[in-house]
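agent> fetching stored inputs for the zinc ion docking request
agent> found them:
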Amino acid sequence: MDQRPQGCFSVKLAYRSIQEIPTSDARGVNWQKVWKLRIHERLKMMLWRVSSNLLPTMDNLEQRMGIADTVCVCCNGEKESVVQLFFQCAMTRAIWFGSNCYYRSELLNINSCEDFVKVVSGDLDFLEHAPLRIAITLEARWNLRNQILHNKELKVNLVSVIGNMELMILEHIRSKKGDGKNHL
Ligand SMILES: [Zn+2]
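agent> prediction call returned; pasting tokens
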């Protein structure tokens, strides 16, 4: 059985998630605040998909499709899940700490999707441009994970990954300033 995630799986989930986007949810989270963030719609979707555990991570594929190999492809360590991949994996921690904010992802203290929801819907003043930085980091991390998944021989250049991430953050900040909107 081909154990690679199927493209249609995530597209279908993303489509469903768009239809189901609430203004608040059972966890008492006011999603309006997240939808009003002044970041690209694509990045809001990334926050939403991580918060709602909608990405085809290995643990989700195990549950839905019965795949057997669920180990994180980036560190060959623990079972891949949203929390493990985006906040606990050694490669993720290196990306966070290697970025211009020198942040330690463990400081976010995220052990469940609910914890992440609290972070994105809370006061994001612990980090400059926090929503933008978090969303772009998650997106870059997911893209890198997919590259490694599909090319096990890939030589990962974290300096380049982080450099591209910082460039993207700068571009978003500049484009918003160009709009006369200097608050992200
Ligand atoms: Zn890992």
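agent> quick read of the result: The chain has a mean pLDDT of 82.
agent> awaiting further instructions
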